[in-house]
Write a structure and sequence with these properties.
The complex is a heterodimer of chains A (421) and B (530).
Chain A lengths: L1 H5 L1 H23 L5 H15 L5 H36 L4 H15 L1 H23 L7 H18 L4 H18 L2 H10 L3 H22 L40 H18 L1 H11 L1 H6 L4 H28 L10 H11 L4 H24 L5 H15 L1 H11 L8 H4 L1
Chain B lengths: L3 E11 L4 E11 L3 E5 L6 H8 L7 E6 L2 E3 L4 H6 L2 E4 L11 H6 L12 H14 L15 H14 L4 E5 L7 H16 L3 E6 L2 H7 L2 E6 L2 E7 L5 H9 L20 E9 L5 E10 L4 E5 L6 H9 L6 E6 L2 E3 L10 H8 L5 H7 L2 E4 L3 H5 L6 H5 L10 E2 L2 E2 L1 H14 L16 H14 L4 E5 L7 H16 L3 E6 L2 H7 L2 E6 L2 E7 L5 H8 L4 H6 L1
Helix pairs in contact in B: 8-18, 15-16
Classes of the chains: A mainly alpha (421), B alpha/beta (530).
Chain lengths: 421, 530
Amino acid sequence: MEKLIKNNTIYYLLISISILFLAIGVTLYMGEYFYGLIFIFLSILIYLLANLNSNKKDGFKEFLKQKFKVILYPLIGIFVSLIVGGIIMIISGYNPFEAYAALFYGGFYKNWGTAVINATPLIFTGLAIAFAFQANLFNIGAEGQYYIGAMVAAFLGLYIKLPPIFSLLIIFLVGSFIAGIYNIIPAWLKVKTGASEVITTMMFAHIARYFSPIFIRSFGGDPTAGSKHPYVTDKILETNRLPTMKSFLPNADYRIHTGILIAIVLAIVVYYILFYTKLGYDIRAVGKNINAAKMQGINTGKIIFITLIISGMLAGFSGVSQITGLEHKLAQELNAGYGWNGISVALLASNDPIAVVFTALLWGALDAGGQYMQRNIGISGAIVEIIKGIILFLVVARYIYNYFYNKYFKKEEFVSAEERV
Amino acid sequence: MEEYILEMKNITKKFPKVIANEDVTINLKKGEILALLGENGAGKSTLMNILYGLYKPTSGEINLDGEKVQFHSPKDAIKHNLGMVHQHFMLVENLTVTENIILGEEPGNAGFINYNLARKKVKELSKKFKLEIDPDEKIENLSVGLQQRVEILKALYRKAKILILDEPTAVLTPQEIEKLFEVIKDLVKTGVSVIIITHKLEEVLDIADRVYILRRGKLVGERNTKGVTKNELANMMVGRDVVLTVTRTPKKRGEKPTLKINNLVVYNSKKLKAVNNVSLEVYPGEIVGIAGVDGNGQTELAEAIIGFRDSYEGQIILDNYSLPINDKTQKNSLNSILNKLFFENNFVKGRLDRGISIVPADRQRHGLILEMQVAENLILGYQGKGKFWEHNILKWKNIYNFSDELIKKYDIRTPNSKNIASNLSGGNQQKVILAREFSKTPKFALIVQPTRGLDVGAIEYIHKRILEMRDANCAILLISLELEEIFSLSDRILVMYNGQITKEFKTEETDQMEVGFYMMGGDKTKVKEA
């Protein structure tokens, strides 16, 4: 058996099967077919089998070790916040076990479809923010880039008449491209004047948000479009909509669309860019020590520029997928909040693109479960917001643990007097 | 016995890895100007920070006016009429002079500040001590000299009887220094005692009444400035036990210089001429050492050579190619125009591509990316080489093989190449940098402070490697504050003082005393006198 695996052809065959199973499993699982999980487990097993005897095993162990560190704080956060949430429920006179049962049953099983729908835009914006964070940039204005993507998608969706594959490709590329371009001014200001991207992208986010009502009034207001008030655009053409999961998985929720699959693939692409390309290497170098990067000839200005634009593009994808996949029209709702929630998702994932998928799904499931819990047990869904808040607080609070750890447990490192003053 | 207003007795301060002060005893008389002389890292600042309550001494005691005191923070020190002006001013840039001076002790009541009273007080104070200043000017509009004046006024406003000045002349122009000295002399007449921390001999002789000399945390002597010679002070300050760890074999240098610098002028961030008309040549197969006390333009020179800092004028020529030194000297190409418009000009890349290697002074800040893997650090700066990436895709296999090789070759102590660089010890971190830079087989290497803060074993290893590089015909420019290091490695020694190369020696034809003397700004005529 071991000899067999050493054979390269067999090895790559096993890896291919593993990837195929993973793809099938994820697709099924996202379409509310829970036996997709079996495929996912099989895929992992095959992967482990393939690497059983190779020296990649150490690499895999290292990989798990690294991931464990990434996961530890969020897990502690989730655990503690559930306890705190439980205490709050006891105080307000509910049975926390019953409530949590409903929350998890609703979020991860009964209303899983809603969870997936909730998670889709969050994965894109979470990726956008995590990507920027890797270069130590805080693209707080992902919300704005979301609106730009959504507007471009609505506009193109109304007018492009091409076979679906081409039109969708064009909408996705143009939408994200323009959302990326939208970050040019903040990027330029950051590089040339040092103006903080936190302020500039935030201001640009407001511009984009409050521009959207003007856009909507120019392209619709048709009461027959399914809305009672006229502040929505017309529905985009049928050919310009993302296929739903239902079209190939008949039992799926009719609203789940293939945007989730695009999001997951994109997460893998972003991971690949960050850790397997020269660009990603430069981005991480700039993020972790901009001085050393500069001293070693990396054009830090260029990297900051490119990072902000790619981050804008990723956030733009969110808007495009939401319009072409779920809503099919742009409505005047100014608190979509996908950009802001993306920050939470990215923080919880410690800026790891793959982890963003999981944290976004968790966020989506908590929302979906909260609704289910409210309907069936009568506990206000607001408890979910409290739990989310505590999770985030505890995750961000790792800086607090570190502070106290350094203050009380770590030995004083020598810093020369000249440096310290 | 004379009355001392301040006595620091048997002060010892231990940091985890270093003893900063060992059994130091100093006294201060009323109305005296006292100087603390010593090289960087001699422990002068630590001693004064202990006095000012920033550090707690490991042992020893401080007596003020004959009474034993213990300071837990600068607040306590200020209460006991101590004032300190730090090397880096602690002023709020966008507040006015008056606001800065009264900060922390505002006149007025019930939470309201009486600005008129405050302004009046500041005016009175500046009149009394002849420190003219406009009380309503904002700090950001003041020159460095005037900012320092504000710091002094601030200390006096808090009724300082003992004023500590930490390297007060480091950032001043000669005219400003002259003015400062006048101010100090006037201050002393009003009964204030002054302690000046410095490493400049001339200043000591110009202004101080008495001087303590510190070396490596220990007090080596006390002198009255009347009758003492510069040479004597210099000997006490730099003289040290020589521990040569490596032997340099003689080697014939190449014919044509690899690096040639002509009349280079570089300004520092304070807009002062930090490098003033420097010319030098480095030949293949030789190590040129630049000796000098910190802050004489070495940092700026190094940054200009590697393109990290723009120069004002002059030429840096590498193998007959004139390297761009600022925007104007850069040849226009699509890339450079794009960089100017949108990104930033990075001259470093061009230099690395032409075969320059850099071992920066601050290894954690400029040399390594601490949070990245050792392997990732080992390919840092390998810009555009096909070995580690092609078409923008990293070749991890090659990268790990390469780094495993270097880890073995340079004896870097790490469990594997995926280890995060911050887990390594200082010596091993420096080995990572050396491995990376030397594996590029550079034509020219700029090595700054290669052994700062390392233990003897690591120092020996790194010195050996540097000499190996020289023997492999690399041209090396070594900038170090450690004279001993300069002597054990260099074939030629250039002394840098006040932004200029003031003297050139062949290592065999000089000794540490002579070089040390020039480092302090001495010149030939005075050597003969002494």
